[in-house]
Amino acid sequence: MPRVVVIGIDGASPELLAEYADLGVMPNYARLKAEGCSGVLTSTIHPNTPQAWTTLFTGVDASRHGIFDFRRFDLSQRTFHYSHSGHRLAPMVWELPGVRELRSLVVNLPLTYPATSINGLMLTGMNTPSMEELTWPPEAYRDVLALEPDYRIDTLWRTYRNAEEHCLAALRMAEARARLLERLFSRESYDLSIGVFTATDRMQHLYWHRRHDPRDIVARIHGVIDAFLGRLAEQLGRTGDLLLLVSDHGFTDLEADFYPNNLLRSLNLLKFQGDPHSIHASAQVRRGFEFLDWDRTPVYAYGFFGSLYLNHLMLTPKSRNNLRDDLIGLLREGYLDTGLSAIWAKEDLFEDPASTVVPEVLLIPRHYRAMARDGSEFLSPALYDSPSLPYTGTHAPEGLYLAWGKGVPPSTTALDAQDVAPLVLRALSVAKPSLLHGCDRKGGFDETVLPCRGSYPTEATQYFSKEHRTAELDHIGESLRGLGYL
Ligand SMILES: [Zn+2]
Questions:
Q1: What whole-number distance in Å separates Cα of residue 66 and Cα of residue 468?
Q2: How far, in Å, is the centroid of ligand 1 from the Cα of 400?
Q3: Above 90 in pLDDT, residue 481?
Q4: Of 347, 363, 385, which residue sits at a domain end?
Q5: CA of 312 to the centre of ligand 1 (A)
């Protein structure tokens, strides 16, 4: 039975990697692409890291897996809570029958903290507060640090004195992650391994405008990953195992920050207590909704990219639906192509319209070359304004897919985020649960491998949980602030 190694590159853009292949920055990637199956992996709407990675490895959309954004707003308490693995309502691919009997390794996949039980080893990803809380089994962190003492979970840019120090830390983080993955691979041969590089995303947000310079940080980090891919392919080539390369989203130029609450204000749907001019100038209001008049605000926006939620404490179910439909009509008439490139109702995109995790209305600002920024909802009185942070890159919907190994002829494909978990199951010869709707036939690998392991509940009630597993973890906010997100 072939083993499967999935390498995730956060924010890897197929266009940029093709350019790096041509420039000689990524010679190994160039070879793998020429020999294997590759194409665009379309991210989720929105193409945000928590939602996209969770969709990739559950095989279901955010209305079923329960992770949409970095934060969720609790209207009755009027507080924000940070998303974490305890909010996940669908099993990850390594938790499914047929896979959980196999040995799995998961390294630095975003939104896996707090670590959950795994038949193998898990190192949780971003927002993990300390090395002592890094692993499952819990005591394994000592062993991990003994294998690679320079291992880092993330680089929080606000903790570095200057840009040079931050770039160097990101480069060292990528190098240490590559070393640790290689040491873990050579110590035990896992049936399924998932390892994610995140330095790409962190540096591309800041230095996307310098990506064409092969000596600059974005290219150098891709060079580190490429050298790792070369060594990995050599090893997998000998054992006949399968390599999959995926990204949660691509990258593009950031042109502006987007302020959807100002759109709602102009439509008279969002009201402040007090003078709105002083509120925009207030640093406090960046972090919360404390200045909103909740008795007169039926619609509000928060989070990344462009997400509108309805005030269910103020509206009856019937008036909610009417308001929502009227609002979509109004926006499509007045703003489509003049400020917004798409406007979606949640049932246009998500399977479970009863989910309260996904927004009621999703706005796509300027083909994702602009973004609403969580924590900065009221920083400007305009609909679009220049970026509030020194960022030049943002997430694009076009992510990356590549499959390489025995039984993968040179070919091209196009995949959606929900196809990845079914493909991993197919590669491991495990039957796909009928509740996963992604396609397991577009990965480019041997069609003659037949699913033979695993048996699944066919009822959604047995497959999806209704309850979160752990309490809120508010210290996660410190990590997100350190990354510059809040
Ligand atoms: Zn990402």
A1: 9
A2: 12
A3: no
A4: 385
A5: 31
